[in-house]
């Protein structure tokens, strides 16, 4: 069977589209991860503030 340039182009286009989708998915996952990290940072800060408040209450 002879492969035409058109078929080769279609395969290359399909591969490129799949790669683009994977890149976009990774970008979304990165954004989600950054949001989770921001929330975790807030929780750590809140916990540190509460701990500091408890020490102040104990030693005041």
Task: Give a description of the structure.
The chain has 60 residues and is mostly helical. The protein has one helix and no strands. The longest helix is centred in the middle third of the chain and has 55 residues, at 5-59.
Overall pLDDT level: 94
Which sheet architecture does the biggest sheet show?
none
Helix count equals 1
Into which percent range does the helicity of residues fall? over 70%
What would you call the quaternary organization? Answer: single chain
Count all strands and give the number: 0
Overall geometry comes to rod-shaped
* Element string (H = helix, E = strand): H
| Cα-based radius of gyration, to the nearest Å | 26 Å
| Regions with little confidence, pLDDT below 50 for 5+ residues | none
Q: Distance between termini?
A: 87 Å
Q: How large is the share of residues in beta strands?
A: under 5%
Please identify the structural class as seen in this structure: mainly alpha
Brief overview:
It contains one helix and no strands. With 60 residues, it is mainly alpha-helical. It is rod-shaped.
SSE order and pairing:
Blueprint: H1 5-59
Structural descriptors:
60 residues, 92% helix, rod-shaped, 1 helix
């Amino acid at each position: 069977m002879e492969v035409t340039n058109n078929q080769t182009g279609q395969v290359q286009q399909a591969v490129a589209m799949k790669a683009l989708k994977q890149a976009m998915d990774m970008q979304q996952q990165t954004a989600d991860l950054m949001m989770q990290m921001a929330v975790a940072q807030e929780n750590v800060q809140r916990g540190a503030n509460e701990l500091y408040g408890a020490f102040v209450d104990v030693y005041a």
